[in-house]
Amino acid sequence: MTSRIGVYPGTFDPITLGHMDIIRRGAKLVDKLVIGVTTNPSKSPMFTLDERMAMVRREVEDIAGAIEVVAFDSLLMDFAEREGAKVIVRGLRAVADFEYEYQMAGMNQQINPRVETVFLMADVALQPIASRLVKEIALFGGPIARFVTPQVCEEVVARVKTMGQKGS
Prior knowledge:
The protein is 46% helix and 18% strand. Strands 3-2-1-4-5 form a five-stranded parallel β-sheet, with helices on both faces. It has helices spanning 17-29, 49-60, 76-83, 95-111, 131-139, 150-167, and strands spanning 5-10, 32-37, 66-71, 87-92, 116-121.
């Protein structure tokens, strides 16, 4: 019997409640969910890859199912192939997400037709949450506790403080 392996890729900078929702639900669809933590060259991360890996590992440890957190720095389809995945799990928040993700799924299908993309709609209460916005709110001293777990909130707030000290 072969197991169904899925990959959920992202930068997770930081991991949000929206990510956690997709991970919880995605883990139910596959026998093993591999969370691929990557660095997007077009983004400036607040946390290092190692910090994000540790953060994601800690946050998912109580989620039911076989979940593994892995770093990757390659084409998503090459990563999926390396992990033995047949499914890529992606979360959708809004129409703008769909347009981008639909295009990416089409390109990925061209690269590797053996791997399917599955879209999960974000929980309505979590749809507006984006890591980019969480960081922006935090940088301006706004409240982020509704968007991330308490420990991630502490880490983001602490990082913002150290960033402010460097600029002083």
